[in-house]
Amino acid sequence: MIYRRHIQIEFNHCDPAGIVFYPRYFEMTNSVAENFFREVAGQSYAAMMRELQGVPTARLEADFHAPSRLGEVLEWRMHLTRLGRSSMDFGLQAWCGDQHRVSVRLVLVFVEGLGAPKPWPDPVRAAITAFMEAPDA
Predict the structure, then answer these.
(1) Residue 135 — pLDDT band, cuts 50, 70, 90?
(2) Mind listing the pLDDT tens digit for each residue in 101-125?
(3) Could you give the CA distance from residue 99 to residue 36 in angstroms, rounded to a whole number?
(4) Is the pLDDT at 131 greater than 70, yes or no?
(5) I want to staple 101 with a disulfide (CB 3.0 to 4.6 A). Which of 36, 52, 88, 94 is the partner?
(6) How many CA atoms lie within 13 A of 26 on its CB side?
(7) Do 104 and 61 contact (CB within 8 A), yes or no?
(8) Which residues contact 130 (CB under 8 A, 6 or more apart)?
(9) Helix, strand or coil for residue 13?
(10) How far is 122 from 97, CA to CA, in rounded Å?
(11) Which residue, 46, 27, 44, 43, is CA-closest to 92?
């Protein structure tokens, strides 16, 4: 299954030339992941933080294929490639129409308290497993 999210390129994403400044792509990947957890796993970042839990980024790699410009809308496509005991790997791609703009590999780790990795809570693991096993719509 692929999780999709559309993000319009705004002025705050851009450098003076009107193209996305590369660190802003990383903010967008975080937005896609945050919304995935809320919509698919039923666990908002806000709720996790109230419980002294979170999913910080452990690894982030990117390949930039073409620039994105102010006013364009990127379709982010995210799929899970691995669900481990306390971490998960995602592949993300951003597209504008039929043009591939960026590819990202993201590893998130579930942590509690002072940042020690913990196993995924059973309801979260069940929701993510169901998502991974569902056919793409």
Answers:
(1) confident
(2) 999 999 999 999 888 999 999 999 9
(3) 23
(4) yes
(5) 94
(6) 11
(7) yes
(8) none
(9) helix
(10) 37
(11) 27
